[in-house]
Design a protein that fits this description.
Elements: E1 2-4, H1 7-19, E2 24-29, H2 35-46, E3 50-55, H3 75-84, E4 89-91, H4 95-98, H5 116-120, H6 124-139, E5 143-147, H7 151-163, E6 169-173, H8 193-198, H9 201-214, H10 220-234, E7 238-246, E8 261-269, E9 272-280
Helix pairs in contact: 6-7, 9-10
Length: 287
């Protein structure tokens, strides 16, 4: 496995791989790798690609007051993890390599970014889309691997790739969880012991409402109240940012759950914001 820090270097190694008949799989990350990232690398390797893992903490997707400066950076550990899971190359550019001058171009996906996290993180998805587009252009990947935990991000990036005719297949891999159900995240390390003990209740609340839907609950407003009540009783250290039930493709609010839905939530524990979600397919309506 090789490590590259410049665009010219990674383009050169990708071109050499293509000359040998390899396809290119890209796993974009911001580092501080965990089991969720490892699952994306594993999936790309299993698909037979020359796998490029990008490690770049992208400043343009952090709003004022968010944790860019404190975002965990563990480059040596990350490199070892990439090698252990069979990555072919790691691209670790500096901010000045990715943004050598003041950017005049950004990519914005409308509508899909106006709900869920987009409603509360102004400019976040423009930063995500712009950096992902840059990385897709730099690496020239045939496939790019994302996690379902960032469900809105996956939907937004897929639409960008479709609308702008990128020749890249998006692969969205399942959420990887800790033994107690907490979705793996680089930000979990920020939690205090007491907060960490309560954080798995996000997933517990999703499981609870999924069971109610399986029993016939169809009103999304009732489902939202079940989740909020469960979190208030079982995770009092958390402050609910949002709980929403939306269409998995359009991210528009759903009132009657008579088709597959995405149940998404965000909860703040102190300065740490955790997200989780679940795709639920309600049972067929009784005749």
């Amino acid at each position: 496995m090789e490590i590259f820090k410049t665009i010219a270097e990674v383009r050169r190694v990708v071109a050499a791989a293509r000359e040998t008949g390899r396809t290119i799989g890209m796993v974009p990350t911001m580092g501080a790798l965990h089991g969720g990232h490892a699952s994306l690398i594993d999936a790309a390797v299993a698909d037979g690609h020359f796998v490029v893992v990008t490690i770049f903490v992208n400043p343009t997707q952090f709003a004022l007051g968010e944790d860019f400066d404190k975002y965990p950076r563990t480059p040596q550990v990350d490199i070892a993890e990439c090698e252990r899971h069979g990555a072919s190359a790691v691209f670790m550019p500096a901010v000045t390599e990715m943004y050598p001058r003041r950017e005049l171009t950004t990519i914005t996906v409308s509508e899909l970014t106006e709900s869920l996290c987009g409603r509360r993180r102004s400019g976040h998805f423009a930063g995500v889309c712009t950096v992902v587009a840059k990385l897709l252009n730099i690496v020239g990947s045939d496939a790019a691997y994302f996690g379902q935990k960032d469900a809105q991000q996956a939907v937004v990036v897929r639409r960008m790739v479709t609308d702008l005719n990128f020749p890249t297949r998006l692969v969205v891999c399942p959420i990887v969880r800790e033994a107690d159900g907490l979705a793996m995240s680089s930000r979990n390390r920020y939690l205090s012991p007491a907060e960490r003990a309560q954080a798995p209740q996000l997933y517990a609340s999703l499981l609870l409402v999924a069971k109610e839907i399986a029993r016939g609950l169809s009103l999304s407003g009732v489902a939202v109240q079940i989740i909020r009540r469960h979190l208030a009783e079982n995770a009092p250290l958390g402050e609910v940012d949002y709980v929403e039930i939306v269409d998995p493709d359009t991210l528009q609010a759903v009132e009657i759950m008579d088709r597959p839905v995405l149940i998404a939530l965000a909860v703040r524990f102190g300065r740490t914001r955790l997200i989780d979600n679940m795709l639920v397919d309600p049972p067929p309506a009784r005749p």
